[in-house]
Amino acid sequence: MKREFASNIALLILINLLIKPAYIFGVDRSVQNLVGAEDFGIYFALYNFAFLFQIVNDFGIQNFNNRHIARHPHLLEKYFPHFLTLKGMLGLTYLVLVLLGALLAGYPPGILPFLFWIGFNWMLNALLLYLRSNVSGLGYYRTDSLLSVLDRFLMILVLGPVLLVPAWRSRFDIHDFVYAQTLSLGVACLIAFRIGRRKIQAWRVRFDKRLMAVILRQSYPFALAVLLMTVYTRIDGVMIERMLDNGRTEAGIYASAYRLLDAANMMGFLFAGLLLPMFSRMLKAGEPVGPLTGMAFQWLFAGAVTLAMAVGFFSEPIMRSLYVTGDAYSGQILVWLMAAFVAMAGTYIYGTLLTAHGNMRPMNLIFIAGIALNVLLNALLIPGRGALGAAVATAFTQWATLLAQVALAGRQFGLTARAGALVRLAGFASGMAASCYLLQNLAAGPWIVKFLACAPAGLLLAFTFRLLQLRDFRVLLPSGRD
Description:
Blueprint: H1 2-35, H2 37-51, H3 54-58, H4 61-71, H5 76-104, H6 112-137, H7 141-147, H8 150-164, H9 166-169, H10 174-197, H11 209-243, H12 247-285, H13 290-313, H14 315-322, H15 328-357, H16 361-385, H17 387-413, H18 419-441, H19 447-464
Helix pairs in contact: 1-2, 1-7, 1-8, 1-12, 2-6, 2-11, 2-12, 4-6, 4-11, 4-12, 5-6, 6-7, 6-10, 8-10, 11-12, 11-16, 11-17, 12-13, 12-15, 12-17, 13-15, 13-18, 13-19, 14-15, 15-17, 16-17, 18-19
């Protein structure tokens, strides 16, 4: 399983490094610079607001289906038509609740059409993730790797020319950005549907109340986990916009730094998507999960710390070069979000393992505590420190929930942290901080050169502290299904 994981994660990283950074920095960032911090700020707040209702939109179906199909592939043909019907019903209910929730939250009625399209895009996104979960659950990891970047690739094709042609740029606004997302997600869903459809001999849309009730009962714990994680990772953008007089502008500044956090999280999300069906199969077969967990964590920790340190030390010039509003303030926000990113990377490993196990109650209790901590910190810090206060709250919350998940995984699976391993992790982090400091303050040359030099420094340190070893790369020989 370590060989299968390594070969497929290498492909995932390669594909995503080619497509997603081009989208994030070539399209998403360009849109914010074009429409301005205030317009993008209200989009960011509404985007996060709609995300808060994802429990209704997904109801844990993606994680449940990925885990279940990985263990019982023959059930895909039985469940597929029922899940499609259920997804449609949940999606419509979700849209209604988003719009009603916006009115209750005090948003003006004139903003509801814009919010509707944002919510509709979240509905398409949930459908795409479900369709992909069938593909990965069957073990077709490479096909799922291609599907994971399809909507972003289509966005590049759609908006790339618009953002490059001056006549089109002058007429572009934030609504056009949302409509382009609708088109790209819709096409991606159709393609993913066609791929999954080929694995099913015969089917038709069905409505079986008893089966759907069973599915909802079994997927409910996963839905609750999605809801709880959503609240403590997305409530900050909403609270910034609602609590401050200049909330839209502050939300826009926060979004500019959060975009880099989202870009960094790309790697962790890929690890989680690949590990969930693998962990599920191993646990069903009674195989030890410690070796795969350890290898995945060391790889992701090495990459996360390298990136976080490099971005943290060069945060201000990064923000100034990317955004017309970039300054020291937005750089400080980015530093704290990168601190949160390292904790998030660990959560992608241990949270995925706990999800594969299926006993969601203890993990959901951790998430409830995370929500309470995050909302409390946001309420205390945002009024006085604005978006920077939200970033500080995010960092503290992510580290607290990660430590709790590591402790829970250790208790449930008998995973123990050896003193030698902890020393190597601490040594690597310290060495990386020292390397970035020396590059920033003592090395000559442009900041971008010094920033890029952090990557080989991190790679060298990873081998020095044995987070990466040459024998690990022997498993990158092709294997698994296409």
